[in-house]
Please model this.
Amino acid sequence: MSEPVRLFFLGGLGEVGRNMLVIEAESKLLVVDCGLSFPNDEMLGVDLVLPDFSYVADRAKDCLAVVLTHGHEDHVGALSWFLKEVPVPVYATPLTLGLAGRRLKEWNIEEAELNAISAPGNLKLGPFDLSFFAMCHSIPDAVSVVINTSQGRIFYTSDFKLDETPVDGRRTDLMGLARVAEEGIDVMLSDSTNAEVPGRTPSEAILGPELKRIFEGAGGKIVLACFASNLHRIQQVLEVAETLGKKVAFVGRSMIANVEVGRELGHLRVSNDTIVSIDDLSRLPEQDTIIVCTGSQGEPLSALSLIAAGEHKMVSVQPGDTVVLSASPIPGNESAVHRVLNGLFRAGAEVFHSGLDIVHVSGHGASEELAELALLMKPRYFVPVHGEYRQLATHARVAEEAGVPYAAIRIIEDGDVLELEDRTLSRGKHIPAGTILVDGLGVGDVGPVVLRDRKVLAGDGILVCVVTIDGHTGEVLAGPDLISRGFVYEDESRELLDEAADKVADALHALEDEKSTDWAAVKKACRRSLGEFVWNRTRRRPMILPIVMEI
Model:
């Protein structure tokens, strides 16, 4: 008897980002999307968060390929790290390949096998027969994928919206999906990002007239921040700029790179003299310039954050300038975005943002669109994906109201396994599905213990206790000397530190009487005596680091 087809997510369920689906059939693995996410407030010093794909890496010989549904970082951002562990072919539409390929080159992954697909289109990979369908999203060239296996048919929507008037004219292929639905869908995996939003997501096309109104009323230069991958938004900015006779400069490494790829592949259509280098801005009247930059999420070193703080080398904001923040904050980024907004207002700019103005629309379908697609596909089983647990649960209710039986809905999280056998879906054995933290060039070397230490250091600081001891007799020759970092300011708290040093000295003298040369016991005495004193006097618990020098 053939084995069941197993499907599970290594990221993207119970969270926003890190989307990574794995399907296993006939002992072969297929990976769909390989994304990253950004650290939360508790991940101090961490730059990026990757899925823990060790399950696939351990079976690298069984993995056939990675299929990418679109070019957003939460779907392709972890590819560079994954291909180092699992060097397999990559399949995606041309724009997605262009964006992902640039990142691979940055990480010196030159030999990756990149293969273009089309929508509609088909692909055979071992036991998997794949069909691709155009999906409207906030980035061009997005697709959904139908995966035919020996045990049933799986439909993965990826990110989508049902925009009737998309900027590029490429709508979600409902007719193609309807034909597949007539053949039968056994498992539908559907995007839940906007499940809590009632109604329908407005069309991207509504922003063009609004941007024109804002640009026409601008007296000075215009700065607009959006996602570097939102080529639909950038196209509308370029069209308005050409209409008004303004010049556009791009700022930010990812923004410049994505615009180059978009122009090469025909997704950005603009005359050459509309786009200028940032170096040329000083020679143009400010009222005739538009600067499109990164930083819509308040990233600390992004272009907009530096501009708001007055620290950007090429661009400054002053009274009379106009700033458009053409994005909504990703959950968890609100405080960073507000910090940037405050800086822009403080500089005297006129600021337009999604909290007050129509300068952004989502790329994800709202509840009516989610219900419409579920109704169209009529799956035997429905699995909400992409989102925090409350969004998954809300999407489950939306699907039930659209006619999917309650018993046919499965809410799962990262690592939960679903087994499809003879078109029947059941739960399998859970697999490990954690996170890999990237800190600088370090990948996976920051774990819970390191994060815990960083939290202690951030909260109460560190107190270093240096003592020199005779290696033969255990006699204290020098110290203890206390060094405070992030605990108290030494110059203003000298009396407290001197008193703490006396307490440690008393504890060490007790060990001298025993002629102890057990350095572990010496360090323990330092920690205990210093910790008790500091807690009693300050009600703080700094990290205490004893350093014993032996002579």
In short: The mean pLDDT is 87. Residues 189 and 408 are 12 Å apart (CA to CA). DSSP finds 15 helices and 25 strands in the chain. The radius of gyration is 28 Å.
